[in-house]
């Protein structure tokens, strides 16, 4: 199984994650990031060995100057609502999967800000996390994760740092309240390093993609990426490392254990249920679905079911309680058989289409990515069948 391990001995920030991931992703992936049309933003990378180790530093220039936004004090930026951010992401020339992932990360951040500041998500205004540099970090990291295509992401215990940090709301203890909220059910610690090592943006990227937290799994490593930061914490090396490899697990091994959380609901609107689904998916659910049911007093209702990894069950239950009105959640443990998955690309006269291949248990099949087909069909006016017929 293709496994990505993210080592956060010096915390995590969006640009450092993006730099480390760029060293393990195909070269053209970062070229697409550099070409992103984010207002007033220029993204570039350079080799860096300022901290005694060779790595990559990503520069995000805002109106020609570098913000220095990782491991930083929270500078005041123009305010952006969640709707502003989502509209910006929707307008970017990236895949639908990247848009979904980026929106999911921002939903996670907005939910945390909502809780710590005691206001509805619709009234959350982003400061550090809403700035253009952070949009670049989130979208860029999502693009690289898509290009890498790992089957499983494992994150080390995260060093969050210590001391205080200055932000738009005043001087706060490290980790900042929003970071604490985002990292619920994650594994993190503080050492004697003074400063904010894990930003809300970095925390949300980790939480969104992490399948598990722990030590580096046994695996055959094929690539190592190092992303460096701008601050000097000598003698400690200020970097994030990622390891990409194969852990030797295949679909023909013992079926994996997953958890199903279920609740019967008869007092929520369609909009509220839809938002609950978004939040569960953003928190890392494997799948979420509704089934119409009839409840007590002949009331029509829905059965909300959430499939998740065993280690995420408590986190998902907390999300369900927060975003629904249920007073009880049923939990079941299930075995799940899965096929190994891989991804390749196919060039057509009108654009590149990703091909997803599944194999195992004597089965192998391939399918063109619908989002890519739909994008080409919309651009050219062709039908989906016509696009499929072009070398697919």
Main attributes of the structure:
3 domains; alpha+beta; single chain; 4-stranded antiparallel beta sheet; 5-stranded mixed beta sheet; 23 strands; Alpha-Beta Plaits; 392 residues; 11 helices
In short:
The protein is an alpha+beta fold and 392 residues long. It contains eleven helices and 23 strands.
What would your notes on this structure say?
The chain is of the alpha+beta class and 392 residues long. It folds into three domains: 2-246, no CATH class; 256-336, Transcriptional regulatory protein pf0864 domain like (Alpha-Beta Plaits, 2-Layer Sandwich); 340-388, no CATH class. Helices cover 31% and strands 32% of the residues. The protein has eleven helices and 23 strands. The protein has helices at residues 14-22, 27-34, 82-90, 96-117, 132-148, 177-182, 200-209, 270-282, 313-323, 370-380, 384-388; strands spanning 2-7, 41-48, 55-62, 65-66, 80-81, 125-126, 152-155, 158-159, 161-162, 164-167, 170-173, 188-189, 195-196, 212-213, 220-228, 239-246, 256-265, 287-294, 300-309, 330-336, 340-348, 351-360, 363-368. Strands 14-7-1-16-15 form a five-stranded mixed β-sheet. The chain has a four-stranded antiparallel β-sheet with strand order 18-19-17-20, with helices on one face. The protein is globular and about 65 Å long.
